[in-house]
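ARCHIVE CARD
CATEGORY: sequence design from structure
SOURCE FIELD: tokenized fold
FIELD CONTENT:
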């Protein structure tokens, strides 16, 4: 599920289902304009990391080649 796709604080923010306080804290962190050493906010970092991961995970050519590899292994 979701925890397998997201690393908390790297490409998303995780919290327990039903934990309204943790959700509010996560939302507050996204709106916080505090910047890191490079001048980037948490929201910008999370967004950039998510885009990078999506390009890797959803790369059609890589997925196609991996699928062929799997079929060859089971054939």
């Amino acid at each position: 599920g979701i925890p397998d796709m997201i690393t908390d604080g790297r490409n998303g923010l995780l919290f327990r289902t039903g934990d309204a306080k943790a959700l509010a804290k996560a939302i507050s962190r996204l709106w916080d304009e505090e910047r890191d050493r490079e001048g980037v906010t948490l929201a910008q970092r999370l967004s950039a990391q998510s885009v990078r991961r999506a390009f890797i995970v959803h790369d059609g050519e890589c997925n196609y080649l991996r699928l062929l590899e799997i079929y060859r292994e089971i054939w």
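CARD ANNOTATION: DSSP finds four helices and no strands in the chain. The helical segments are 2-5, 20-31, 42-57, 60-74.
SHELF: design records, drawer C
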